[in-house]
Lipopolysaccharide export system permease protein
Amino acid sequence: MIFAATMTRYVARRFLGATLAMLAGLTLLVSLFDFIELLRRAATRPDAGFTLVATIAGLRLPFVALQILPFAILLGGLLAFWRLTRSSELVVARAAGISAWGFLSGPVTVALLFGVIGTAAVSPLSSVLLARAERLDYAYLRASAGITALAGGRLWLRQADRGLEEQGVAILSGRPLSDREAARAGGGFAMTDVSLWRLSASDRPLARIEAPRARLLPGRWVLEDAIAFNADHNAGPKRDLAFPTELTPDRIENSFASPDTLSVWALPGFIAVLEAAGFSAVRHRLHLQSLLSLPLLAAAMALLAAGFSMRSSRRGGVAQMIGAGVAAGFMLFVLDKIANEFGEAGTLPVYLAAWAPTMAGLLLALALLLHLEDG
């Protein structure tokens, strides 16, 4: 019993060392290519120097590490288990009566911890730093910036209209002011050339409001010098109108930004607000479920690595098995991307799109280990 526990800890340490080395190596390699691409884009921007490019690449490091984590676990596991098999340590352990399920509990626990830390700790850090990197990228390296580049410079917002007797919808359209222009206009988020349509729950037009300017204040839109047209197309007098809203400048920006820039802890609340405001939250729901499935995916990758690399070297075909393990990891990556595309398009339910690749990898790993141990 003591030997089994010692063996489990030993295998877990070897697995941990190989995974950390693989994670660091792959993260630096991918970040290097990202840095080179940023340098290429900065070559035509005189105000983007080497320090700025290095800052953006550095801010993206946690995000890159989080994306690479499952593959680092797979490749690190393949390396660790292959070394243990080549040195016959696993053969001796199994000859001593320790099953594969016994000494694999250590590496699986390590992989689960990697996934939990990635979801609970690295993800919030990654979201904050990635949001900062994206702002710098938009400000210095891209020709157009954020939401102002949409629809020819016009921004379209949809939110619930709680001022109606029956639950309705309001659609707001306008041209967002830049930060400098908004500061001259009194600060805050503002738009010009604003149109607002109020619709009933059955999409029946109820009113239209035209205003030269609208400012977003806490809990309400203020439409300046607005003219309201009712369903009979009769115009009212020009006056300032207040329209209730749950939107904030950050929520508007985040609704168009990548879900990767939001912390896993902030996503549930943001999804609720986003849907109450009338935005689609499919991408954010999919990202949240993907983060929640990361610990199980990490464990599946550890088991998959064991299943493809614990073949005895005396039986031959070790290189082919390890190559098959790498190919299986790549296929899981492709399956995950395809499932995400179907999930974002609404073809697959969000839970199925997020969890199906993870469950497929876990079932494949368990089948391989059952064949190896009992077959």
